[in-house]
Design goal:
The chain is an alpha/beta fold and 196 residues long. The chain is 31% helix and 24% strand. A hairpin with a 2-residue loop joins strand 2 and strand 3. Helix 3 packs antiparallel against helix 5. The model has no long low-confidence stretch (mean pLDDT 89).
Length: 196
């Protein structure tokens, strides 16, 4: 039995406003750009890697991975990145798993657990919950949701969890490793988690 293709999409399309406008994916952590940590964690879990970025696309391209800009103007948020990823897959039977570029401690079994949950529930989307808090930027979505997401964005909607709840979805608990979803938004957090 062949499994649908899974594409790992690192979301690096934001403005980095809480880090002084820095492109967070390119901020150094332990001698490597933060996005490189996320890519390394995702790589063994997926069939291909993608990066969603709206700035410094030439630098991101040096990772040798397709760089997908938002198809919507104005930095409208993570769902625009997911939209770019799903659009990239087109009509294929596949999945996109998203991770933010500022979360370098992605669980090494993230994709396996999200896939298992969608299979068990017959769902088209799965999102993470850890320590009782939804972590909706960590999600898995099937290409079946492409049209619904396009319509949601076209209506001016932006909230990830609200869109997820309109789809057949599964919520996957990661209470065993909530620290894996820590994101680094500020210079202070960067200093706490590693060396710049």
């Amino acid at each position: 039995m062949t499994h649908p293709r899974i594409s790992g999409l690192v979301l690096a399309g934001g403005l980095g406003s809480r880090m002084g406008g820095a492109d967070k994916g390119l901020v150094m952590l332990d001698g490597r750009p933060m996005v490189d940590h996320v890519l390394a964690r995702l790589h063994p879990q997926v069939d291909e890697l993608l990066i969603n970025a709206n700035r410094n696309t030439d630098i991101y391209a040096r990772f040798g991975i397709p760089v997908l800009p938002d198809r919507h103007t104005g930095f409208v948020g993570p769902l625009a990145g997911l939209d770019a990823g799903l659009n990239h897959l087109g009509e294929t039977d596949g999945w996109v798993v998203t991770c933010p570029c500022d979360s370098p401690f992605v669980p090494r079994d993230l994709v396996a657990r999200l896939v298992a949950a969608t299979e068990a529930a017959g769902a088209d989307v799965a999102i993470v919950r850890a320590d009782g808090q939804l972590q909706p930027v960590f999600l898995l979505a099937h290409t079946r949701t492409t049209g619904a997401l396009q319509a949601y964005l076209a209506a001016g909607e932006r909230k990830i969890d609200r869109w997820v709840f309109t789809q057949k979805h599964a919520i996957v608990d990661f209470d065993d490793c909530p620290e894996a979803f820590a994101n680094i938004n500020t210079a202070d957090e960067l200093a706490r988690h590693g060396q710049g």
